[in-house]
Automatic annotation (TrEMBL):
It is a multi-pass membrane protein. It is found in: Cell membrane. The keyword Transmembrane applies. It comes from the Bacteria. Its main location: membrane. This is Amino acid transporter.
Length: 208
């Protein structure tokens, strides 16, 4: 891999970030229980945590992979199998009961809501694993700082659209009901995204 695979990065990021998890469900719950205003502040906190992990993964892994080509290959395959694991997890969720349990949270101030979102993402192992695999499978080991920043920007934009989108959408009762009725479809789409990203990585590597 000599160039940054932006398509793979975007597809993987959309599937992983938009899939139901502690952060997205907390944003949805805050928006429905306390209104869009608090939902947006929670989303801002989650986004800050996401940018922190993304930046750490980009520059931390780049420094290590430059001098350890074998580790780069290991991480590439670990990343591919991690995406495959997420695909199977989403597929299993699609066949489960269609009820979505949204977490309730105590809201005292917008500042507290922001830090609640930040802590959710900083203490969640999912983004740590995801960003580590994302930069190892979609970014070449020879990428320079400006290229790494471009990837961080792209992933940050995707994260912003997803997190703030959750806050806007789930502040409407009708959207919530539609999601609950279509949970299997949404989860199946997430599984497809993860699966395609994983298989594309393995096939391109095998053929290269």
């Amino acid at each position: 891999m000599e160039e940054i695979n932006y398509l793979l990065i975007i597809v993987s990021a959309v599937a992983a970030i938009a899939s139901p998890g502690p952060a997205t469900l907390a944003i949805a719950g805050a928006s429905m229980n306390h209104g869009r205003y608090f939902g947006l502040y929670l989303a801002a906190g989650v986004l800050t945590g996401s940018l922190f992990w993304s930046t750490s993964a980009a520059f931390g892994l780049a420094a290590i992979l430059h001098g350890n080509a074998w580790l780069f290959e290991v991480l590439r395959y670990c990343g591919a199998f991690y995406l495959l694991y997420l695909a199977l997890k989403s597929l299993r969720s699609a066949f489960n009961a269609s009820t979505l349990h949204l977490p309730k949270m105590q809201v005292t101030s917008v500042k507290g809501t922001y830090f609640h979102g930040l802590l959710i993402h900083l203490t969640n192992p999912k983004p740590v694993l995801f960003f580590g695999s994302l930069f190892s499978i979609g970014v070449p080991a020879t990428a320079n700082p400006s290229e790494l920043l471009s990837v961080i920007l792209v992933v940050g934009l995707v994260s912003s659209l997803v997190f703030f989108g959750y806050a806007f959408l789930f502040s409407h009762e009708r959207v919530r009901q539609i999601y609950l009725k279509s949970k299997a479809i949404f989860e199946s789409v997430f599984a497809l995204f993860f699966g395609v990203a994983s298989i594309k990585l393995l096939v391109s590597k095998a053929g290269g």
